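Thread: Modeling a multi-component assembly for a lab meeting

Hi all, long-time lurker, first post. My supervisor asked me to bring a structural picture of a complex we are working on to next week's group meeting, and I have zero experience with this. I have the sequence lines for every component (436 residues in total). Could someone generate the structure of the whole assembly? Inputs are pasted exactly as I received them:
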Amino acid sequence: MMAGLPLAINIFIKLREDILRGRMKNGEKLTEQRICNEYNVSRTPVREAFRLLEQEGLIEMIPNRGAFVTGFLPQDIADMYDMRKEYEILAFKWAVERMTQEELEEIRNAYELMEFYTHKGDSVKAQDQNVHFHELIYKASHNKQLTRILTSYQYYTKLFKEDGDIEMTEEEDMEEVLKEHSEILESLEDRDAKRGVAVVRKHLESSKIRAGYGGFDD
Amino acid sequence: MMAGLPLAINIFIKLREDILRGRMKNGEKLTEQRICNEYNVSRTPVREAFRLLEQEGLIEMIPNRGAFVTGFLPQDIADMYDMRKEYEILAFKWAVERMTQEELEEIRNAYELMEFYTHKGDSVKAQDQNVHFHELIYKASHNKQLTRILTSYQYYTKLFKEDGDIEMTEEEDMEEVLKEHSEILESLEDRDAKRGVAVVRKHLESSKIRAGYGGFDD
DNA sequence: TTTACTACTATTGTATACAATTATATGTTA
DNA sequence: TAACATATAATTGTATACAATAGTAGTAAA
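Re: Modeling a multi-component assembly
Sure thing. I ran the full set together rather than chain by chain. Output:
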């Protein structure tokens, strides 16, 4: 558990991961006492965690009855890629208008680090910079709501991808991701919203396909 | 308070409204005890409500320090209209693909009721059907996440509009809204995604302008 | 057997009690 | 006075206790 954070937050994070990784059956009942025993905590923080899970739509709480897991279907995951795509486009547009020079430099730095680690063969650190690159664009959009939602989408799609024993992103894929990031970076540096929207759209559509959710409705 | 629901949910709803209506200063500290005294409840449900407010980005909780109100700036509200617009478009697209005949009829029914109440001069009931019309489209998109987010956006923008002593939507505005809804309904009935996206976009841009957030960045 | 009622158990909802941390006030020293 | 240290109070974090509701088993009557 992350030290310093309240138990409620730590329990929320753990349970969210369990649900997203499919470790709990759809419709399964979560009794508070069971979670208390598992983590050796009292019901107070567990209840707070449950409320957060409900707000995220991962469990359904029925008053006086209990909390039930609400799983994700493949279609839901495919949909989430589309929802993320629209907001990534929005974040890019606002970043073009609102980012500071310093923020642009941070983004460029994240790109270069990802390039470095990719060519070095360190796919874990390259992945970290991949995530970081996107998060810096969210930050540069200067909108907290959008940033919060996109951050959670990124986390969700990351867990889905790692789910089901699917291998980590392939070497060749990483080169493709890198190429797409370079196009996004160029568009930002040129403050070229038109091109940027096109490449961000392409990037997210590719990532949906890479994750195996291509053939659903697009 | 809504009977049947847990106190935590009722307190969350009340505090959310207080914050969105601007009844609390930006940065103001919310002590748990104060809320307990105000609503005559114990700290347990208050803390659960605080967690929900934090998740929505309406307060910031600093461990061992307390909860502080995070207000909305005009720019944030303008942004939210843009975020809502993109998801309304997505909901429309998915509704065109996924709605049942029964759902289409419910939507048509809501439109006709709004038309009836508007011409009868009952703007309150007309407003209710306005909201209902949109919510039925969310439902017809068959995506719970999207539905949940759009429902909350609708609530947010509604409170912002009612804020600051601004008059209820004008008579002439209601006619305009009605006209736009009829175009959305027609597009749904024809399952014409291309036209529908255009009219939904127009509808949301108009509503942003009607609410007074037109001149921010669009 | 089926239904309805009762008693009991399990679980959730809420309040309170205790622990840990932070803020405030007081006093001391340079 | 200003800076620091210490004691005290206030507030949050967590655990437990009590209340209310829902589920279950068992029994009796039809």
